[in-house]
Design brief:
The chain has a 5-stranded antiparallel sheet with strand order 1-6-7-5-2. Strands 3-4-8 form a 3-stranded antiparallel sheet. It is α+β, with helices and mostly antiparallel strands. It is built from 5 helices and 8 strands.
Length: 173
């Protein structure tokens, strides 16, 4: 999310339902990283929310060059530097009571993890879709980036935080 911005205030959006239908029209399961498919399905099943984009968050390192790697980091002393690819869920909410409550729940998930979790609006999403937000897992110093080089020890921490964030999202349902 190279265009990170603080979360904006909701605005009126009379076309929300039409935009949701259009956004979900071509979405298929194979477009979603398997570990987060259920979360995305559940968010899209809410009448006051739809997803825009998502990524489970991937770790690429020597011996693991797949940029869409879903494997957990191995227990090893042989990895020093890791390319971390941002974990996030970008979504749009309707400006109503249910939408505001959902935003509060997303904010709660990010609270207390500010070193690694951000609740935000991304400029380029908002330009295409008002009332769009994201929860992302990225070390705060790299929050404006889609990828970051981090050391193995920090990658383990990011992996643990990512897992807790997705557990928190699943726990909303």
């Amino acid at each position: 999310m190279e265009t990170y911005a603080e979360a904006r205030e909701l605005v009126e959006n009379p076309d929300f339902r039409k935009q949701k239908r259009t956004a979900l029209q071509g979405l298929t399961d194979d477009m979603i990283d398997p570990p987060i498919r259920d979360i995305i399905r559940k968010l899209n099943g809410l009448p006051h929310c739809f997803t825009l984009q998502c990524c489970y968050g991937h770790f690429v390192y020597e011996g693991q060059s797949d940029p869409h790697n879903l494997e957990r980091l191995p227990a090893t002393d042989d990895i020093s530097e890791i390319e971390y690819r941002l974990a996030y869920v970008a979504f749009c909410v309707d400006n109503n009571d249910a939408g505001r409550r959902l935003l509060d729940r997303f904010r709660e998930i990010a609270t207390g993890n500010s070193e690694y979790v951000q609740f935000l609006s991304a400029e380029w999403f908002w330009e295409r879709q008002v009332n769009s937000y994201a929860v992302q897992v990225m070390p705060d110093r790299h929050k404006n980036k889609d990828t970051a080089m981090i050391n193995y020890r920090e990658a383990l921490q990011v992996q643990a935080v990512r897992d807790r964030v997705y557990e928190g999202l699943m726990g909303m349902f």
